[in-house]
Amino acid sequence: MAHLCFQTAYPGDVFLSIPLLKRMREWDPENEIVLACRPGLGEIFLKYGIVDRVIDVNKKSRAGRSAAWRDLRGEVWDTIICPHESPRTAAWMARLRARGPKVGFHKWWNAVVFSKRVQKPVQYPDALRQLSLLAPVDRVVADLFADENFERFKSPVSRRSPFSLSDPEIPDWASMRIRPHEPEGRKIFLAPGSVWPTKRWTVEGYEELSRLLVARGFEVILVGSPDEHMICARIAAKIPEVKNLAGKTTLAELVDLLATGLALVCNDSGAMHAAALSGLPTVAIFGPTTLDLGFRPWNNRAVIVQRELKCRPCGRHGSNKCPLGTHECMTQISAEDVYLALTEM
């Protein structure tokens, strides 16, 4: 007997599934919770007991797809919860077997795939959107979303900078925290990378911020994925006191490493969500994306640095190039702006 959560999106999106997965555990503590996700993402969920089992789904590899398909088709699932919304994922879901409901977000084309479809509550942050998928099968979640006081959790629309996300406080039942925050020394982590180039604050900005922090006696540590190592190397080359750990940790190791810091400065990226797993204070620099899109740091101790520009947002996600060719949403943010937000937090 097992329930399946199928979430094969980017790391940040999978981290935002934690409130959903935690509630699945409370909803049915007797049976297994299984997470299907991209390779390398499941380790942290197993380590902290969020799920009982992980199925790696490598859609880029024929062998990886075949292995995942064998595991998924080898069971009859009690319930299938699917936050991932792509047509290809829907095709997978249509062929899986389940005793109970298959639940996904409502699309005009997916009625034949899911027996229960949820209208996506786009006005809320994504952690709550994903949690809403339990409403058709979990009365507690259905009642939460029906409560008129739930409106207080709507995504903020403010463009002020710096903008604190401390109010309203995220309650325990919706929290992404899975481990304690245990600072060691005077570590400040910087995560200058992002999958999308337009979501990256400038390398020059991170360089100058590093100088400001080093001059004030902080230990500055750069973190990121293997693909972000070169961006971090450019910064470390200019400031020898800075340590570059990008690409040198697994995702689970990164989460535990971040928990030892005083704060994180990052872009709207997976690192921002990784910090929320320990409640690490975070300064997040937002450029092409805005808070009302729903992908805010799901963290009580977070501050947003941004610029109020008419061109923002220029899309639901970032892009490879600024549509206007100016990238003002990032180039207009100075190291002093970010340092001020950090010290005020």
Please outline the major beta sheet: 7 strands, mixed
Structural class: alpha/beta
Average predicted confidence as pLDDT? 96
Low-confidence spans: none
Helical residue percent? 25-40%
Shape: globular
* End-to-end CA span: 46 Å
Q: Report the portion of residues in β strands.
A: 15-25%
The helix/strand order is EHHEHEHEEHEEEHHEEHEHEHEHEEHH
Radius of gyration: 20 Å
* Main sheet strand line-up: 9-15-14-13-10-11-12
Topology:
Blueprint: E1 2-6, H1 11-15, H2 18-27, E2 32-37, H3 43-47, E3 53-56, H4 62-73, E4 76-77, E5 79-82, H5 87-95, E6 97-98, E7 102-105, E8 116-118, H6 126-131, H7 139-146, E9 163-164, E10 187-191, H8 203-215, E11 219-222, H9 229-238, E12 243-244, H10 251-258, E13 263-267, H11 270-276, E14 282-285, E15 302-305, H12 328-331, H13 335-344
Task: Characterize the structure shown.
The chain is globular and about 60 Å long. Strands 9-15-14-13-10-11-12 form a seven-stranded mixed beta sheet, sandwiched between helices. It is built from 13 helices and 15 strands. The model has no long low-confidence stretch (mean pLDDT 96). Helix 8 (203-215) crosses helix 9 (229-238) and helix 8 (203-215) crosses helix 13. It starts with a strand and ends with a helix. It is α/β, with parallel strands linked by helices and 345 residues long.
